[in-house]
Amino acid sequence: MTDRYDVVVAGLGAMGSASAYHLAARGLRVLGLEAFAPHHALGSWHGDSRIIRELYFEHPLYVPLAQRAYELWEELERESGEPLLTINGGLMIGPREGMLIAGTLRSAAEHGLPAELLSPAEVRARFPAYELEDELVAVLDPRAGFLRPEACVDAHRALAARRGAELRYEEPVLAWEPDGDGVRVHTARGTLTADRLLLSAGAWTRALLPGLDLALEVERQVTFWFDPPADDDRYEPARCPIYAWEHTSGYIGYGFPRLERGVKAALMHQGETSAHPDEVCRAVEEAEVEPLRAALRKMLPGVASAPVRGHAVCLFTNTPDEDFAIGFHPAHPQVLVSSPCSGHGFKFASAIGELHADLLTEGTSRFDLTPFRLERLMGDG
Ligand SMILES: Cc1cc2nc3c(=O)[nH]c(=O)nc-3n(C[C@H](O)[C@H](O)[C@H](O)COP(=O)(O)OP(=O)(O)OC[C@H]3O[C@@H](n4cnc5c(N)ncnc54)[C@H](O)[C@@H]3O)c2cc1C
C-alpha cells in the first residue's frame, strides 16, 4: 500500500508554496515535498527582497498576470497578518530609445496605465539618491515596489498547511513515473501515488525530466548588499524607489532601497551558466563586485562607493527567450511542469499558484499561456 494524494507538489519554493496553498483551498488532498530544510539559500527565493512592478518592459502580456498577482499578495497579506508587500514606486532607467524605456512605455500605453517620463534633474529633485547621467531618462511606475520572499513563501506554506496540505521538508523527489492516469513518485523516504504531479523544483526541474531535454539553463546570480552611511536617509524606502536600469544595451541591473541588510543591487544575466545546480560555484570573490560598482556610478554613485556588507549566490533558471516555462508534460498530461523564472518570476508567484490550481483542476487557465508552452523548449517547437 502506498499513500494516495490528489496532487503531489515537488518543490515548495516560490511557485510550489503558492500552488499548495491554492490547491488545498479547493479541498484537494495535497502533499508538498521540499528537498531541503524550510529555509535554505540554495534555490531562487532567498535574499530578503524581490521586485514587483506593473509596467512590464519585457512584454505587455505579463501585465494582467502582474495585476492578478498584486490582488493575491494583498489577500495573502490580510489572511496571514504578515507584511509582505511594500509599494514605494519603481524607476525604470535607461537610454530613451533603449529596450527598457521603450518596453515600459509600450506596456503602459497598451494597458492605459500611468507612466511618468522623468529627466535626470526631475529624478534627482524627487529621489535624491539617484544621479542619472545626462543621456539617461526614467519612467516612474507608481505601483512598483518589493516583496519579502521568505515571508511570502512562509505565508503560503503556513496557510496551505492550515487548509489541510501535508508539507514535508528534507524529502526530495528522486524520480517519478506514470501509473495509469496517475503518477508514482519516489522520494528519499519512500514511494507514493497521486492523480497529478506538479514539478515546481526551480533550478532542479530539468533534472526531474529525464528524456525531455528542455532548454532550461541554470545561471549563477550574485547579489550584493552595500552599506552607505547610516545617517544618509536618501536610501530609505519612502525616498528611494526600487529600480531596473539598462546599464548596457540589452542588459539590466536592478536594486532596492535600504532594508535590514543594506542596499541590495545586482546585474542580471552576467553569470556563469550550468546544466545542473550542483555545478554552480557558491563562493563569491571580492573582485566580483567591480562591474556592478562601475555600472552604479552612472546612476547611484553613493551606493557605488559604499562598502559591501554581504553577498549571496542565487540561481536563475533561464529559457532562451526569457519567457516562462509552464505546461503539461507532452507525453504525460497528469504532470504539470512549471519554471517561471529567467530571473523575473517571483512577483507572479501568487497568481501562478492560482493558475497552477486552475490547470490541475480544470485543465485551463484564463491567462494566455501560449508564450510559455514547453514545446518551444524542445527543439521542434
Ligand atoms: C538573485 C535573484 C533575484 C531575483 N529577483 C527577482 C525580482 O526582483 N523579482 C521577481 O519577480 N523575480 C526575481 N527573481 C526570480 C524568482 O525568484 C524566481 O523566478 C522564482 O523564485 C522561481 O520560483 P520556483 O518555485 O520556480 O523556484 P524556487 O523558488 O527556487 O523553488 C524551487 C524549490 O524546489 C525545491 N526542490 C528542488 N529540487 C527538488 C526535489 N527534487 N524535490 C523537492 N523539492 C525540490 C528547491 O529546494 C526550492 O525550494 C530573482 C531570482 C534570483 C535568483
Outline the structure in words:
The chain is 24% helix and 30% strand. The chain has 381 residues and is α+β, with helices and mostly antiparallel strands. The longest helix is centred in the N-terminal third of the chain and has 19 residues, at 62-80.
Write the layout of secondary structure elements.
Elements: E1 3-10, H1 14-25, E2 30-33, E3 50-52, H2 62-80, E4 85-87, E5 90-95, H3 99-111, E6 116-118, H4 120-126, E7 136-141, E8 145-147, H5 149-162, E9 166-168, E10 173-179, E11 182-187, E12 190-199, E13 217-226, E14 242-248, E15 251-259, E16 262-267, E17 273-274, H6 290-296, H7 301-304, E18 308-318, E19 325-328, E20 335-339, H8 349-362
Parallel strand pairs: 1-2, 1-12, 2-9, 5-14, 12-20
Antiparallel strand pairs: 3-8, 4-8, 5-7, 6-7, 10-11, 11-12, 13-16, 13-17, 13-18, 14-15, 15-16, 19-20
Helix pairs in contact: 1-5, 1-8, 2-5, 2-8
Bound molecules: flavin-adenine dinucleotide.
